[in-house]
Design a protein that fits this description.
It contains 21 helices and no strands. It is mainly α. Helix 1 runs antiparallel to helix 2, helix 3 runs parallel beside helix 7 (157-168) and helix 11 (227-239) packs parallel to helix 15 (289-302). It has helices at 2-25, 33-49, 58-79, 89-101, 121-132, 138-154, 157-168, 171-178, 183-200, 209-220, 227-239, 243-265, 271-276, 279-283, 289-302, 309-336, 338-342, 350-353, 356-363, 366-384, 388-403. It has one domain (56-364).
Length: 412
Amino acid sequence: MRLAVNSLLTVYYLFVNLLFIYKYGLRQDFIPVAAILAAYVPCVCAVLFFKFNKIKRLKEIYFAFIFLTALLLLFIICRVDKYALIVDRWSAMEAGIRAWINGEYPYTATDHLNGRTSNFPGLLLIGLPFYLLGNVGLLQVFSFVALAFCLYVFLDTDKALKYILLLLFSPAFWWEIVALSDLMSNFMLVLAFIILIEVYLPSNKFKYPIALGVALAVLLLTRGIVFIPIALYFAKDFYRLPWADKTKTVVAFMVVALLLIISVLRNCPDWETMKHYNPFLLQTSQIPSFVYATSLFLPLLLTFRIKTVCFDLFYYTVALVAIPVLYALTSKMIAFGFHETIVDSIMDLSYLSMFFPFLLMPLSGGMECHLANNQKRCIYENSATNTEHHHTTLSAVCADAARHNVFAITRY
């Protein structure tokens, strides 16, 4: 079953990237598009099947590779002629942040293509430091480096390197960089946050309820679609919290969320303006509202089926995000045809790849490594804990990991 699902994810990864190659390959005359398409699949397969654990000094290679890649991303972002782009995600964020800090309603501010931002206030807040640095595209570099670090502490180094290479082999990722888009970066930040919680607070995610409530408020107020992985990961544990911790988390969440929402709504001139100019309209423009709403409701039910982070979380996240965007793609192809939908940009292809940060985890083999590390962490914590309460809890976690793990522990 696991092999079949991973094969399906590989097909999806190839399908989306081949669409990007076809669409943008047609805009150049140096290499036939068919040759690029034919060469791409073997290159990806080579990465998928290469045994990176046989490389010596892998840790040093990993960090050197991340450093050089970050420099390359920084160079591209600083050299891109932003105003020549026909994609306005960067300028929509910039216009929104500028209006926000100047006391104006951000969702009526127009960008260089006369578009408007669809970002919730949490993403405006995250993008603010990079706006002040002079280029909101720097968020992409930050997100990449942050995720690369989290992957290193979460996975064996060979799995982390394979993940990064699969990301860099994706034309969809490079489109995000050149277009200065924040869509995939948004998912990178969410995944990095989940990894940090899983690594440092695996058995008690709500150990610091106030801090977690603040962080969740900011992340959930970036884009509506990120509710899916966040709800899948946190909701079950939240339901089982003592009322005192629930109250602390909810109060912290509500205070920060209300402050962010009020900070943008206080400058809205009237109800009609808010009704016609708000981020919900733009975020649901590619996907029918009922499909979007269903995909946001299901995580609250499926969270109880999350037995292991490594398998269930990534699979359910990919499925719940992919289904609505594939529905949108199929409906547009039926209505307008393949060429108009893909080449003439009736469908924004970046929606098909925005959740690649989650999809690449099973493709890189990272789930297996995580289970092994989870067992080792349990053994270590059990040996360091003397109280019967902690011993019982951690033993249960170890037993759960062991039931789902069939391979040897190879690290440490």
